[in-house]
UniProtKB/TrEMBL annotation:
GO terms for molecular function: ATP hydrolysis activity. GO terms for biological process: protein import into peroxisome matrix. PANTHER family: AAA-FAMILY ATPASE (PTHR23077), PEROXISOMAL ATPASE PEX6 (PTHR23077:SF9). This is Uncharacterized protein. Coiled coil: none annotated. One of its GO terms (cellular component) is peroxisomal membrane.
Length: 128
């Protein structure tokens, strides 16, 4: 599973060493759903940051151009932006900010119980 998460995070942010830092900070008993929640929250934070940056650009442009009869609007700015400028990049900081808010869906004791059941009912169980 670490390989899958690593691949997904690498596609989001190309700084691979930072990906391993994020994964190392995650509780051992994170499930796939927990990693999904972490990625989703990190993406949400990245989108909010991108929206704030665009809004700051618009506000600054409108303040600097006091002589214009038509203030700059979001739709106008978005239409002028290239696909690269519209990209939202999820960074290590977004993951680090999201991590404290994601509660593992399986507790450590539940994981130990499931592992015990797995051993008991699998071919790994000691034979008598």
């Amino acid at each position: 599973m670490d390989r899958v998460v690593s691949q997904l995070l690498t596609e989001i942010d190309s700084n691979l060493s930072q990906v391993f830092v994020v994964v190392a900070l995650c509780p051992f008993h994170y499930t796939g759903a927990d990693f999904y929640a972490l990625c989703s929250m990190a993406l949400s934070l990245a989108i909010k940051d991108r929206v704030a940056a665009i809004q700051l650009y618009i506000d600054t442009a409108n303040q600097d151009d006091v002589y214009s009869a038509r203030p700059l609007h979001v739709a106008t700015v978005l239409d002028m932006m290239s696909p690269d400028e519209l990209q939202v990049q999820v960074t290590h900081g977004h993951f680090a900010s999201a991590l404290p808010h994601v509660v593992p869906s399986v507790s450590a004791s539940e994981l130990a119980h499931y592992d015990k059941l797995r051993v008991q009912f699998s071919s790994l169980a000691p034979t008598q």
